[in-house]
User: What shape does this take?
Amino acid sequence: MEIVGRHLFAAVLTAIAFVMLTPAVQAAPVALGDKTCLECHKAEHAVWSETKHFKSFRTVHKNKKAKAIVKSIGGKSMKKEAACALCHYTSISKKAGKKAKPKAGPSCESCHGASSDWIKIHNDYGGPNAKMADETPAHKVERIAKATAAGMIWSSNHYGIVENCMSCHGLNNDALDGKTLAAMLDADHPLNPDFELVRYSQGSIRHRYYAPDATKNAEMTPAQLSELFVEGQAAKLVSATDALTKSDNAKYQAAQKLRLEKAKAALSAVKSVPEVAALLSAPTRENALKLIEAIKGKDLSAEVGSMIPAKADFK
Assistant: This one.
């Protein structure tokens, strides 16, 4: 996905604020599937097709432990259980109101949002025959704002992306109730308190094909990694804080408290940004977003560099 240039940022925010005043779409958006993205994002799709997210679709439901977990919540098949589909599958529906069916593992829309409401906006560069190269800066600002308002999570919105990561890797999906969580964990469903954004996003799933060389899967600089690391820890802190209210299951509580402690320890190292203290004091999404805004473009590697995983440890 393309990145919003720093020089466009203020204009984009203004446009988004205006667009958000329009009435909300009533029908819930639906995922249309990875082929919707394939035409324009072949390189990104090729990366995804080599990941565990892609390959798990054919294997995860065959695992003995997976079968035991499904049975623990009263189900017979992962692909037919809504609780499993939340994270393990991309459930596709070609039309709002039609039953969605699992057609792939976690894919494009798992991170960037179900595309039925935003895909046409995203693909409109200024008219039926307009190409990306023809788009004016003003239209780009408007297009980004409208697609965002329609539910698209752009790759530049790291916090929005990592919220989706945490909903699954932190086992904190809004649609997952406490009773189901408890049953899953008692059946040995994994919950990894050590999930960290840099390690899990900059290895096998990295797909950063941006101008000026869109043929290269660009690696982040140390400064960019430090910013991403702090963004991930902020999201982890908010996610764990919220998760503690979802279930009193002992395993769940212990894992979430550990996530919370790890995020607090990492963020406490950032002394140069006042918004960190505010977030630590009140771990809310609003305060996290204020922190994200405050660190844009900052090099925090002197403060958090020692905690960032080595490239050899990227997943």
About this structure: The chain is about 50% helix and 0% strand. The longest strand covers residues 101-104. The radius of gyration is 20 Å. The CA atoms of residues 172 and 243 lie 6 Å apart.
